[in-house]
Write a structure and sequence with these properties.
The chain has helices at residues 11-27, 32-56, 60-109, 123-135, 141-170, 172-181, 185-227, 233-243, 249-266, 270-294, 302-316, 318-340, and strands at 113-116, 119-122. With 348 residues, the chain is mainly alpha-helical. The chain has a two-stranded antiparallel ribbon with strand order 1-2. α2 (32-56) packs across α3, α8 (233-243) runs antiparallel to α9 (249-266) and α9 packs antiparallel against α10.
Length: 348
């Protein structure tokens, strides 16, 4: 036996290692989201770091620091704008919930009093009961403690994301080389070739998502405020933009919320204006902007997207929703690479 040589790594051993890694990922799924958000931002900004370093003759860390300051300024400005734009609308929305529910129930059932599933209801009482169920326990001490814990966790998560963004920007290439080092040497060339195919798709997809969210927020605000003339236009626009991150289901949910509020505010005539809004909005994103900024590399059938979305949600929650489409598209690229090679002749 030659002690200076090792045996090739069995592919079944690799499969077991991947399964163990996925199991570990499931166990620590609550800790994944900050790393995922920071990694996505740093991944999209990485070309800018490279250009600044090359143009100024700077070290990677210095260029990363410049880009980090820019990213922090953009994120801080967005948070400040969101707070100033939505502070009054959120407070007003909480105050108007009982009245909005009352008007919606009265219009849906055509009267103040109605019978549903054999039970008699009054719209005013039912709306107040629903509002109390949603917000009535906020004044309890336990709720205040939970809110304080949640606020502390949120602040900690934000700080962690900012720290991770800088580390990912500064050490991006080293981290990529470290990940490739985990692959057995006999498979590294093949893995590097597949990764080179996935990289442009993933970078374009993530960058395109930022563009689509920004466009959806601005376009929906113009339509909601000027065409549909609904209250809480800024809040609904931001919600619409954020829900674009959730494939298929997110746009359906945002359209349903805007549609119900249109019906509640203006009656059934608003269905025509709402239909025009949804049609133009989806055409602009799905048929024009989406193909331009995302390209066709991540083009996957909607049924596959829905399955990936649900599987990702069940596996690691919100993080799974965010990575559902990129993972599905990456699997598609891996299979395309593997099946494009001719089969090896089996030894006789």
């Amino acid at each position: 036996m030659d002690g200076g040589r090792r045996a090739p790594v069995n592919k079944w051993a690799i499969a077991v290692a991947v399964a163990v890694a996925l199991g570990f990922l499931y166990v620590v799924r609550l800790a994944v989201l900050p790393f995922l958000v920071a990694g996505a931002i740093a991944y999209v900004a990485d070309p800018l770091v490279r250009r600044i370093a090359a143009a100024g003759g700077l070290a990677r860390g210095a260029a990363a620091g410049i880009v980090f300051l820019g990213v922090t300024a953009v994120l801080g400005g967005f948070v400040a704008w969101t707070y100033l734009a939505l502070e009054q609308e959120i407070a007003q929305a909480f105050a108007d919930v009982p009245e909005l529910l009352h008007k919606f129930l009265a219009q849906m059932f055509g009267a103040e009093e109605f019978t549903l599933l054999g039970k008699h209801y009054q719209a005013t009482a039912l709306a107040q009961q629903m509002a109390d169920t949603l917000f009535g326990r906020v004044s309890e001490p336990r709720q205040w403690i939970d809110a304080a814990v949640l606020g502390f966790a949120g602040i900690t998560a934000v700080i962690l994301v900012l720290v991770l963004i800088y580390y990912f920007l500064a050490a991006g290439p080293a981290l990529a080389e470290g990940a490739l080092w985990l692959v057995p040497p006999e498979y590294r060339e093949e893995v590097a070739e597949v990764a080179a195919r996935i990289d442009p798709m993933l970078r374009r997809y993530l960058g395109g998502l930022f563009v689509i969210v920004a466009f959806a927020t601005v376009a929906s605000w113009l339509a909601i405020a000027l065409l549909l003339r609904l209250p809480f236009a800024s809040l609904l626009a931001l919600l619409t933009g954020m829900l674009e991150l959730v494939p298929v289901v997110g746009p359906m949910l945002s359209a349903g919320i805007v549609g119900l509020l249109s019906l509640e505010q203006h009656g059934f005539w608003a269905v025509i204006a709402f239909a025009a809004y949804v049609t133009l909005f989806r055409l602009a994103i799905d048929r024009i902007l989406g193909p331009i900024v995302l390209g066709h590399a991540a083009a996957i059938h909607p049924t596959v997207v829905i399955f990936a979305f649900l599987a990702g949600w069940m596996f690691i929650g919100v993080a799974g929703v965010i990575i559902a489409v990129p993972v599905a598209a990456s699997v598609k690229i891996v299979l395309d690479y593997y099946y494009s090679h001719p089969m090896r002749a089996r030894p006789r």
